Amino acid sequence: MTAELQGQLQDGLGSLGLQLDQSQVDQLLEFLELLQRWNRIYNLTAVRDPQHMLTHHLLDSLAAVPPLCRHLAQREGAGARLLDVGSGGGLPGVVFAICQPEMEVVCVDAVAKKAAFVQQAAASVQLRNLRGVHARVQALQGPFDLVSSRAFASLADFTAWSRHLLAPDGAWLAMKGKRPDDEIAALPANVGMFHVEPLRVPQLDAERCVVWMRPV
Asked: Less crowded by CB within 10 Å, the N or C end of the chain?
């Protein structure tokens, strides 16, 4: 990993107000390097350039960490469980697991090689709180306090497919590009959108947001 990418990651963390210790920064860089290495063979992501991987994947996922931390801080008790649906190359699930080591993170993907990559990342980056699962989300069992996705499916499909996995007081966290007003309007009556949080991704000029939802 080049010193330039390390510097850009540190700058991005500073812009987001994320205070990670050095071991967590090292884990992020190791994960990024592992993603680049596996991507040459297994085609985990269409993004190939290391610079673009940093901005479009790592920093993009990190931008959702402050909202995640604020949500977790409002919960009573410890031991939150998060399911990342359609995790692909572990984004944002692996990033969440690095930044929230007390939270159990399960990344599920219907593509076996992508789930295998997350398992390898958990071993290589030494994340005992992370697990990759090869399955369709409809076949899993919960409960999870949070169910997340990043550019996975429409909000209606995402919530319908994972509703049985959500704890009674749980919430959905959907990472999207620009505010998906059409998708929000298409949500069924038993899903309530309670917040759309704009995100600013350091070093990336693009619209991003988190759509927060819960069962009603």
From this structure: C
